[in-house]
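Researcher: Re-running this chain for the archive, since the previous output was lost when a drive failed. Same request as before.
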Amino acid sequence: MRSHRWFTPWLLLLPAVVWVLVFSIYPFVNTVILSFTNARPLRGGQFTGIENYVRLAQDPMLANALVTTFVYVIACVPLLTVVPLLLAMLVHKPVPGIGFFRTTAYFPVIASVVVVSLIWSWLFDSRGVVNQTLEFLHLVNAPIPFLVDRWLLLGTSILLTVWKGLGYYMVVYLAALGNVAPELHEAAAIDGAGAFRRFLHVTVPGVRGAMTLVAALVAVSAMRIFSELYVLTNGSGGPGGESMSIVMMVKQVGSGLNGQVGYASAVSVVLFLLTLLPLLLIGWLNNRDSGGTLGARA
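Model: Regenerated structure tokens:
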């Protein structure tokens, strides 16, 4: 240790620091600066103050994108926080053949989101497998507009997102369940607690940290949803762009030779600020529950 120079740790950190500065910090700062300009792809912009943000406040496209994004967050966070936990509990016990079911549940995670979204669009098309099956069984008289109606399209996309993310968050919960002592379940069972009460009072407190992590990851991913909706709507955001997410809006207004880079940057800054909201809320709820638990123990 004495032979090392003072700059040795900095040399070891240098590649990571350069990477973060070049690909994270600089793009973020540049985006904030561009949001106050009228920049275009092929020419520099002029400073316009808060004009882009004033325009955003009056843009109906942003209103639709906010509704789509928040519906996505409200639907995906509880589903992808609870359902993977239940799935992890089903495959947690070491019984013969359980590895097969764990692997099967994880397959959607490693599949390309674009490929899966294309398959999903073929399944739920007006002449797709789902509609043809429903018509064959005489359950419907006309094709259901899964990919045309705004709310059905959102529901289809949310179902796709949940199905694809189950395996990933299941693995997170499997690691957390391994830290829950079996003796706690045995003691609760001896005291007469049923399976549901053991789940609420033993399992959930034991994986609370993992649940907070999963909720935060899902919230950020849902706020930045793009690929599923983009593929299902062929990039249009649905009829009239009603199902367009915020990231899709950034792509639409900022791409192309005549793209409004400054305006798209303002949308990106708004998205960044909105992404902080669920993270702060989840952190506050977690701290409040932790404080309440510590207070009760005291």
